[in-house]
Specification:
The chain is α+β, with helices and mostly antiparallel strands. Helices cover about 40% and strands about 35% of the residues. It has a 3-stranded antiparallel sheet, with no helix packed on it. A hairpin with a 2-residue loop joins strand 1 and strand 2.
């Protein structure tokens, strides 16, 4: 299912046709997550939160390593 939602053609459709906006989260210039929102059909001034994903494992590992070795 994720392959379908996050395929290049699906993301292109979301950006160009469905007017989704994406915010990319960077950690030291490495993308670790994103959020997506789009205008509501009935009131284009309001937006609908679509999805969000964050890569916590990398950050958690980094925090654990610092805690252990400091």
């Amino acid at each position: 299912m994720l392959d379908k939602i996050y395929s290049l053609s699906s993301l292109e459709n979301q950006l160009l046709n469905q007017h989704h906006n994406f915010i990319i989260v960077l950690d030291n210039d490495i993308p670790v997550g994103f959020a997506s929102f789009s205008p509501k059909e009935e009131n284009r001034a309001r937006h609908f939160y679509e999805k969000m994903a964050l890569q916590f494992l990398r950050k958690l590992r980094s925090l654990l390593e610092r805690a252990i070795y400091e």
